[in-house]
């Protein structure tokens, strides 16, 4: 089940933001995230804020969801009355956004455009499960202005998919990717998960070969994380499944880098590879570079000018607050300069370009020199005044960040 949100300070009923936060709107890019909290079934490893029909209960339905999101968007338009820059990227995530009719997703996108304006060539992404789209629905999404899709493939192995409790067949994701390209999507991503109990090196090699053969221009590959409260965690506690191995995860990562690199993909973030700069996920780059965004939907997080807030998690509570004319925000925090520096280092160091050494706190420069000596930071980038991870550094990225910030 979904994990708990932090407490934070109360969000005003009208959602108002401090003047200083609003004045920072024009300084960085602006994006919109739309959370769709519905899934046909819950995967065994999932603790996302998503709900099956049985888990949802009353107070919210798929049929009324788009109108509820539009109510939050109207509130957001009032809060950001001083218009932000045009929206550079919109990302519909979940959950499974494509369980909603394409016309509903299109209505939300059109309302975002009316409220703030989409930048010319704005990236518009939807996540999708492979079994949740058809050639007709994909064409409809493109007609509404979607130009990027991210499909949750996870593995090409039927056995691995069973352990993950995925519903699609092993061959469905590459077919869905081809259907998306044929429908007119400019960019198609396939997501992989590695380190699932029982996954062999050959299983993962087959998954990598499958995404390369699918002809997509973006691949995300993430190590399995076992979250407390999930069915997978319970199975591991009972001894039914083995816990993931760090050494095996490192081997899988190296295999991904080798196979994707040989196929013309370049890494641009530790877990993401693209065939060109244009294929990189611009929405995620907004997150990783400290930009501003408004998150619509239950449990969605937002960030404007150093203020971060998060909505109530349950769809029924979210709908009830908006029906009462109140912000759905549950809590918020005002990031200090130290908080923002910490996040900047944590996120930017994961990017291929890294971050300027001058952006590090003075105490971190000795740690950066040690990381360079240990082969964790690239010598050429360091000489040019940047901290950028080597391949070995990518495997130990969390430790490098800890050392730089300790």
Automatic annotation (TrEMBL):
This is Heme chaperone HemW. Belongs to the anaerobic coproporphyrinogen-III oxidase family. HemW subfamily. The keyword Iron-sulfur applies. Probably acts as a heme chaperone, transferring heme to an unknown acceptor. Binds one molecule of heme per monomer, possibly covalently. Binds 1 [4Fe-4S] cluster. The cluster is coordinated with 3 cysteines and an exchangeable S-adenosyl-L-methionine. The lineage of its organism: Bacteria, Bacillati, Actinomycetota, Actinomycetes, Micromonosporales. InterPro entries: Coproporphyrinogen-III_oxidase (IPR034505), Elp3/MiaA/NifB-like_rSAM (IPR006638), HemN_C (IPR010723), HemW-like (IPR004559), rSAM (IPR007197), rSAM_sf (IPR058240). The keyword Iron-sulfur applies. NCBIfam families: hemN_rel. Transmembrane segments: none annotated. Keywords: 4Fe-4S, Chaperone, Cytoplasm, Heme, Iron, Iron-sulfur, Metal-binding, S-adenosyl-L-methionine. It comes from the Bacteria. Residues 24-266 form the Radical SAM core domain. PANTHER family: COPROPORPHYRINIGEN III OXIDASE, RADICAL S-ADENOSYL METHIONINE DOMAIN-CONTAINING PROTEIN 1, MITOCHONDRIAL. Pfam families: HemN_C (PF06969), Radical_SAM (PF04055). It is found in: Cytoplasm.
